Amino acid sequence: MGHGSDTEELARRAAAGDSTALDHLLLAIGPRVLEQCGRFLPCRQDAEEAAQDALVQVARHIARFEGRSLFSTWLHTLVANCARQTYRSLRRRSVEQSRATLPVEIADPRTTSVIAGSRLDFLDALEKLEAHRPELVPPLVLRDVCQLDYQEIAGQLGIPVGTLKSRIHHARRHVRESLQGGDDGAGLGTAGGADAAGRRPPG
Fold first, then answer.
1. How does pLDDT run across 87-129, given as a tens digit for each residue?
2. Residue 181 in contact with residue 95, Cβ under 8 Å?
3. Which of 140, 153, 187, 197 would staple 171 via disulfide (CB 3.0–4.6 Å)?
4. Mean pLDDT of the region 59-81
C-alpha cells in the first residue's frame, strides 16, 4: 500500500506539518486504502465507509508517524483497525435492525469472509480472538490479510521475528477452530504455513 518513495516522502513531510504534502498524500493513498478495506469488507459501500474513516484518521494522526518504519506499514495497521471498527458498527446496526425484522435466508455479505470465500465469519473470529488473546490479532491481520513480510511486521510491532511467527501460528489455529465451531481444535493446527482460512500466504 503506497510503497513508492514519493509516498514515503510525502508522509514524512506531512508528519512534519506540511499541509500541502498531506493533501497530496491522501489523494495518493486513497485507492489503495479502499482496496485494503475491501479485503475485510466485501460490500463495497461498507469498504468505502471504512476507507473514508481511515483517511480521516491519517489526516488527524499523521503527526504520530515518526518514520521508524515505512509509512506503508504504519498505514496498513491504521486501515486494518478502521475496517474492523466499521465491522463492529455494522454488527451493532444489524442487531438493532434484526429486533424488528424477520430473519431472511440469504447470505449476508457483511458476515462473509473475503479471505475464506464463504460464510466463515472471519471478522467474528478475530473479535473472539481479541477478547482472549489480543496480542495475537495484529500479527495475524498484518500477515494474512495485509500480506506484509515478517521483518516488516516485526519492526512495526517491536517484537522478534521468532516471537511473531509463533503468535501467527497460534492465531491461525485459534481462528480456524472458531471458524469451524470446534472447541478442541483437532486437526486444525496442522496446516503448516496456511493462513487462518487455509490459504498459504506468499513467502
1. 888 878 776 666 655 454 444 444 444 443 433 378 888 989 9
2. no
3. 140
4. 92
Q: Which three cell numbers stand for residue 173?
A: 489455529
Q: Mapping DSSP to helix (H, G, I), strand (E, B) and coil, where does residue 59 land?
A: helix
What average pLDDT does this structure show over 177-184? Answer: 68
What pairs with residue 118 in β-bridges?
113
Question: How do the domains of the chain map onto residue ranges?
Answer: 1-105, 112-203
- Per the structure block, which three cell numbers stand in for 172? 491461525
Enter the C-alpha cell of residue 137: 490479532
CATH class of 1-105: mainly alpha
Average pLDDT, the chain: 80
Choices 3.90.228.20, 1.10.10.10, 3.40.50.300, 3.40.640.10: CATH for 112-203: 1.10.10.10
Residue labelled with grid coordinates 492465531: 171
* Gap between the Cα atoms of 94 and 88, Å rounded: 10
